[in-house]
Amino acid sequence: MPYGSFKMECHQIRCRLNGRHTDKNRDSDGSKKISVHKMDDFLTSVKEVVTAKGVGIRDGDLYLSKPVIKNEQFHSIFRALKDLSSSRPASEFSITSITGQFNPTLLTKIFDTKKLTRLSISFKQIQWNSDPNTPEPSWRTKEDIIALKELFNQSPNLEVLVLNPVMEIVDFRPLPEDVPALQDLTQVFLTLKKLHTLDMRVYLFHPSYFIPVPEAVKTLSLYHVNLYSKAWWIEFSKFPFKNVETLEVFPSEEEFGYIFARDDYQLGKDRDGAPRTPEEIEIKGYKLGNVEIKSLKKFKFEDTEKLFLPRDLTLCVLKRNDRLDEQVKLDLMRQSGLTLDETRDRGGRRRSF
Q: What is the pTM of this model?
């Protein structure tokens, strides 16, 4: 029996429900498309599709193009979708993907997020704190941290996660050692036992906040890494990433949100406001000395001297990761100008720490 794709559109929301059809009169591709432009018609169409005879809902796919939580016109739709997802077991109704730019709290108002397996979310990150004498996050930032924590707490079945924060500012001060809201977020994030793929488009909330990845993660992609601070990279180097097999690290000279990513290393300040040493300014970066990760099979790092980055990241990875694909090793050495001897100890073995 063919799978069908039900797609309903109305201004700011597009909802697609994929079902299994038993109706022999369906199109050859098993699809039916419904387009509506009024809220009442939209909600009616959703209910008709969900309750239609011969249609068993297999999964749902929702895209929110704009934040709409303050628009009263949408609230009845949100309630209907929440009731729908709450009334069905995951075997009959699972949300495979949600994409949009909105506050994380909105998702828990729309869906039973326990059935959420894939999530791509973009949300606005406001200024950490406008008071130059206060290193603590502002109350609004704390609210955003708590909102993301609650989303993770109510989404235990996440398998694929894309976090795409939209940044407003570049002016930070070094991160305090004790930020309870971030510590709570870390603990909840580590409980995502099914998460195997993580894509982070930029840092979360602060360029020095390193959030450890759950043990099940096998594929990790990090973007705009030149916007991360040295303090973040130090924490990165000390974390084992126990089961990560594929690591992709991408710096960027392009504009990201409200941040212009070209580096300001000549100013002598790191991304978190900490001073840079004369040596760091001279080499346009810093050295990690070692990384704990040793489970990699694939590694990609687009190094460039134009941006402020850890200059020995490739060498550290090569020393620790014997399971890297041989072609990957050769490509990394060629790109970074390393020789085979540089990645081995005096006995001819690959160096380890």
A: 0.79
